[in-house]
Every structure is written in C-alpha cells, then in structure tokens.
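dumping this here before i forget
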Amino acid sequence: MKKIILLVFFSSSLFSQISSKKIENWISKNNELDGSVVSIAVKRIDKDKKIVGSGIDINMTPASNVKILTVLGSIYYGDSIPIINYKVYNDTLKISPTGYPLLSHPKYEDKDLGKFLKKFEHIEYHIPKIDLDKYGPGWAWDDYNNYYQAERSEIPIYGNVIQAVKKSNGDIEITPDKFKIVIDFEQKIQIDRSEIENNFSINPSLLKLGDTIYYPFITSRKNTVSLLENALEKKVEFNKEELKDYDVLNSSQVDDIYSAILKDSDNLISESIAANISYRLNDTISVDKGIRLIQNISKQVELFDGSGLSRYNLVTPKSIISSLHNIYDLIGFDRIKKIFPKNYIIRHEEDFVWGKTGTLKNNHNYSGYLITDKNRIYIFSIMINHFTKDLSKIKEVIVDFLIYLKSNS
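structure:
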C-alpha cells in the first residue's frame, strides 16, 4: 500500500510540472499565434532546474525587454549610480557629468543633484570623456518629435524635452522657457519643431485645459550650459579642461531610477544608465561601451542600444531567463517586486506576476517572475514576433499562458 501511495504522489508531482511538450502543445492550440514566431522559456527559480520551453534559442526582437538587461548591468556593475564628479576649489564648484538623467526632469523627482548644485554660488562645467551619438542604430529617423526618442546627451536636463502645459486661464506655460516659441493657430498638430533647429510652434486651440505635452529639443553642450543656468538660476562657466582629482556624488534614488526604466519604460533614462555603466568602468560616457559591458553578462544577445528602440537588437528567451535569474540572485525577490511592474494587464487578481513588456510594431514580449498556486517562483520569457493579429489579441494569449503557468506548475 505504501508503494502505491508513493507512486501516486510521485506521478502527481511529475504531472504538475511544466514541460517543453506542454508549452509546445499550448502554442499549437492557440489560433491567434498562427503565422507568428513564438518563443517561450520557463524556469523554476531553483538553480538545479533546467529551462523548458519552445524555441528558447531563437533570436527574437526584444523591444523594451532590453531594459531588463540594462538594469541588470547597472546592478551587476556596482548597483550604485554616480550622478556627478565634483571638486570644490576655493568658492567654486567644479563639475563634470556622468550621464545621470534626472536633473530638472519634468516627470521624475531629482532628490540629489539639483539640491547639491544650488549650494554653490560659482559653478564651472568641465567637459567629460564622451563617446555618444544622439540616436542609436536602427532608431526611426522621423521619431525625433516624440518623447520616447529624446536625444541622448552627457547630462540630460529637463528630460531633454520642453514641457507645454495649458493652464486654467488658457495660457500655455513652457518649461524650459529658453527656446523660440511661435503661436500658430493654423497648424494641424499641437506642437511642432524644426528638424534641425530649436524653433517650436504651438497651436493653443488644440490643447485642452490641463493638457501636458512633451517635445524633444536638440541637445548641444552650449544648450546644456545654458539650461543649467536656467535650472539653477545662476551663472555657469564653461571649462574645456578635463576635471581631475575629483570626488563622486552618488544617487540616493537607485530603485526610483530602475522603476522609471522598468515600470514606465522610459527610454532616455535607460539609455543614460547604459552610458553611466560605461562611465563607471571606462570613465567615459558611452552607450556603445555600456552595452558591450552588458553583453559580457548576458550571453546570446546582440545589442545596439540600452532601451530597445533599435530593431537591430536580438536576444533569445534563454538569455532573458539568465538575466532575470541574475537579477534575482543579486537583489532578491522583495526588491524585484519594488522595481518591476506587476500583473501585466490582468485585473481583479492577487499579485502573482512581475515583469517587463517589450513592444514594437508586430512584436510583443513579456518576461519576468511568477508565483504559482503551489507557491513556487518561476522565471519566464514570452516572445511573440511578426504577428499580424491585433495587439489586444496577442495580449489575451499571454494572459492565458500566465494563468496556465500559475495553475499548472
């Protein structure tokens, strides 16, 4: 009798485990996935468990799943974000940037840098070591007018965008107020900018009361110094010499920055942290060097930016699983729950899944961590590329798999 009971228990336990065959069967039964390239990888968090799934070694377009790798890189290379190099000389603060992106940001509070800089009456801005293009390879050339493709720079300020707000009295408030603004009631869009100059035009009649619009400006070192003066309300001198023998001010908002990248999927902040990773190891602000460092951690990836905007990026679900596992090992599940968004698009359900989406046209991915009904923690990566169905249908399929994994593992 004992042998029979043990056999039944063992068989039941074995049956409850997710397997590659079960995942492949699940994919084949979903008509919404017909014609798509589908790769799914799943792994129980226990280190001795193997990865199961379908197409786990297929190169896929990750979109913003790249941000998982950028956050891993920042955690792996110190988990501390330097925000400014500085040296106090007599009554002057000498500074050199690190790529830190929150100074006077319109969406995110900067708790450190602005307060620090305002303590000093005299500031000198020293040029940093930099190897940075404004846009990444494979970015859409005509998306320069969208918030999600604000230009990279050595020290983003105001998020490298202007903010236009229609006040209750009908006035348009512009921040920063340093650029030429023309009111044009004839133009067909709310706000526009010359492709090659910081000349903006706004049609106030197309903005509703309380509307807030963000529009990227063209960055330059001259603009940076001018905008620093605007933000700090004091003169900033420019010094062409490299700053040496400096101290480093580190951020007290590391998890806030990771949350902006993972929860809000902010591209410029993610690009800036990739460049900041390079600064930490190479003393150079460089996305290219930063992503090479990230690639040293995450195998089976080919990266061209730190945010996922580039269609040149390629990753495998297996590599995403490895990256998620590294994050888990480095910071633990409690902190993961703090920086990752929860529950995908699922409503009226207890918190059971924390993950990052990644979307470009005809490509949608979702990767993260899931707690099953048996209280087991799984890592997963669901990557669906080249679909032609409505995105809402693809999202419903992913929800179905998440519930399936939750109930059957």
